[in-house]
Automatic annotation (TrEMBL), chain A:
Name of the protein described by the UniProt record: Proteasome subunit beta
Organism: Thelephora terrestris
Compartments in which it is found: Cytoplasm; Nucleus
Keywords, sorted A to Z: Cytoplasm, Nucleus, Proteasome
Tree of life domain: Eukaryota
Function field: Non-catalytic component of the proteasome.
GO cellular component, one term: nucleus
Biological process per Gene Ontology, one example term: proteolysis involved in protein catabolic process
Family annotation (InterPro entries): Ntn_hydrolases_N, Proteasome_beta4, Proteasome_bsu_CS, Proteasome_sua/b, Proteasome_suB-type
UniProtKB/TrEMBL annotation, chain B:
Official protein name in the record: Proteasome subunit beta
Matches recorded under Pfam families: Proteasome
A GO term from the CC aspect: cytoplasm
Keywords: Cytoplasm, Nucleus, Proteasome
Biological source species: Thelephora terrestris
Entry similarity comment: Belongs to the peptidase T1B family.
Cellular localization per UniProt: Cytoplasm; Nucleus
Entries under InterPro entries matching the protein: Ntn_hydrolases_N (IPR029055), Proteasome_bsu_CS (IPR016050), Proteasome_sua/b (IPR001353), Proteasome_suB-type (IPR023333)
CDD domains: proteasome_beta_type_1
Described function: Component of the proteasome, a multicatalytic proteinase complex which is characterized by its ability to cleave peptides with Arg, Phe, Tyr, Leu, and Glu adjacent to the leaving group at neutral or slightly basic pH. The proteasome has an ATP-dependent proteolytic activity.
Keyword Nuclease: no
Gene3D superfamilies reported in the protein's UniProt record: Glutamine Phosphoribosylpyrophosphate, subunit 1, domain 1
PANTHER family: METALLOPROTEASE TLDD, PROTEASOME SUBUNIT BETA TYPE-1
Keyword Glycoprotein among record annotations: no
């Protein structure tokens, strides 16, 4: 019989002598401290998405991302949507940890529903969504428990285009072309060259061609990318996210490469 | 044992800020490039902010902390205005900034602040801060990526360090506004040449004391009409202007 009522109902440790009086009576320490290991925070992303690209053009903003969610170097999930509509004026694109992105989306969906139920003729625009996200990301980094993403928020509301970035540190900025991750090294220079100073004249077709060309270059150079992608457009008419499309790749140039790789002479 | 944390909550976003005070004016400037590592994130991210009609704050370092800090300072100034029906005086803003920075002594805002404006006695003033709140009033200060390039130049041109006055004369205690503006613009064009994190654009805030003669400023303004914008809100007080200039983008 265990005479210590605080132990009743808890797992018993038979190795412990409950009647021992030396040195002093103790509760059997068979209860594992829930917090012994500390609270676990995200220390690294697990299932990740690579670059997101976005540009401003004549009618609004256009955003592009491929459909891959990698598990390290393994191309684990090949049909993942990384572009999502938030309300009627905003599209959100994510690179980084896909489970954190899923969580962010559930927060935003709740937010949009909450605003909808107000029925006050106001709707959340891209600027409000971006502000919400930047406060969220900064608050989480300040708790040293970041949401491991780089996010792009694009939108069109009240005749104004909006395109901005926020990442796991809470760093924000806006520009007429933005690329996350590997795309910030490879695609951003291409996008700037094509877009800067031409934001108000670029047509939808031109904008799409620029993004597809950048995705193609990324697919050739970024080992965590995929040739399957989607493009989102936000204009006066609202958000439109395309079905998945395939990049038209060409590998014939590989025949002509000499100096490295497999070849007989 | 808890695992050692590998997440680094800080980064450095480049750029440079600078402020110079005169007898009855203050000039606060910053470039508009925001970068991380070797990448330019954007060519236009303001680092200089109007707080009141006589106070301007420039922030430099970790941009996310900077934006949050400015947001909180503005909020405190709004509360002050609702409580006291007037704008907070410059020296009080300076002390407020110290306490706000020191409150986060053990998880600091990684931000260098420079506060410029007009004191209650009508003199131009510059206050500079370190990330945990140490501050002092100065005549001029540069901070940020190109501090090591700009501050020695200011020591020479504003404080006349290593200069000997012509026999029978002394160095002036205060420089006139046109001279100060030239020094500010030259500082940034030079820093842009020699520092990769500085460039793209320049924002120069000019705070003029109440009742100041505007002749010299109007002459400068006339040359840069489309670049200069007045931000003054209150009638019959200090006046604030901002000049937006281009810097090299490479």
């Amino acid at each position: 019989m265990d005479h210590f009522p605080t132990n009743w109902g808890r797992p018993r440790n038979d190795a412990f002598d409950a009647y021992g009086t030396y040195p002093i009576h103790q509760r059997p320490n068979n209860v594992k401290d829930t917090f012994a290991e500390g609270v676990q925070h995200t220390q690294q992303p697990i299932v990740t998405g690579t670059s997101v690209l976005a540009i401003k053009y004549k009618d609004g903003i256009m955003m592009a991302a491929d459909n891959l969610a990698s598990y390290g170097s393994l191309a684990r999930f090949r049909d993942v949507q990384r572009l999502h509509a938030v309300g009627n004026h905003t599209v959100l694109g994510a690179s980084g940890d896909m489970s954190d992105f899923q969580y962010i989306r559930s927060l935003l969906d709740d937010l949009v529903i909450e605003e909808f139920t107000e029925q006050d003729e106001h709707t959340l625009g891209p600027a409000e969504i971006h502000e919400y996200l930047s406060q969220l990301m900064y608050a989480r980094r300040s708790k040293l428990n970041p949401l491991w993403n780089s996010l792009l928020v694009g939108g069109y509301k009240d005749g104004k285009r909006f395109l901005a970035y926020v990442d796991l540190l809470g760093t924000t900025y806006s520009a007429s072309t933005i690329a996350t991750g590997y795309g910030s090294y490879i695609a951003q220079p291409l996008l700037r060259k094509a877009v800067e100073g031409r934001e108000d004249t670029l047509t939808e077709l031109e904008a799409q061609a620029i993004l597809e060309e950048s995705l193609l270059v990324l697919f050739y150079r970024d080992a965590r990318s995929l040739d399957k992608y989607q493009i989102a457009k936000v204009t006066e008419g609202g958000v439109a996210i395309s079905e998945s499309m395939a990049l038209k790749t060409s590998w014939s140039f590989a025949e002509g490469i000499r100096g490295y790789g497999a070849q007989t002479q | 044992m808890a695992q050692t944390r590998s997440f680094n909550p800080y980064t450095e976003n480049g750029g440079t800020i600078l402020a110079i005070s005169g007898q009855d004016f203050s000039v606060i400037a910053g470039d508009t490039r925001q970068s991380e590592g070797y990448s330019i994130q954007t060519r236009y991210a303001p680092k200089v902010f109007r707080l009141t009609d006589r106070a301007v704050l420039a922030v430099n370092g970790f941009a996310a902390d900077g934006n949050m800090f400015v947001k909180k300072v503005k909020q405190r100034l709004e509360w002050y205005k609702h409580a006291h029906s007037k704008d907070m005086p410059l020296k009080a803003i300076a002390r407020l900034i110290q306490t706000m920075l020191y409150a986060k002594r053990f998880f600091p805002y990684y931000v260098y602040n420079i506060l410029g404006g007009i004191e209650e006695d009508g003199t131009g003033a510059v206050y500079s801060f370190d990330p945990v709140g140490s501050y002092e009033r100065e005549a001029c200060r540069a901070a940020g990526a190109a501090q090591s390039l700009v501050q020695p130049f200011l020591d020479n041109q504003i404080y006349f360090k290593n200069q000997v006055a012509a026999p029978g004369t002394t160095h002036p205690a205060h420089l006139p506004l046109p001279d100060v503006l030239s020094i500010v613009i030259d500082s940034f064009t030079s820093a842009t040449e020699r520092h990769i994190e500085v460039g793209d654009g320049l924002e120069v805030y000019i705070v003029l004391a109440k009742g100041r003669d505007l002749q010299d400023f109007e002459a400068i303004r006339a040359r840069n009409v489309h670049l200069t914008q007045e931000l003054t809100v209150t009638e019959d007080g200090e006046r604030i202007f901002v000049m937006r200039l281009d810097l090299k983008k490479d």
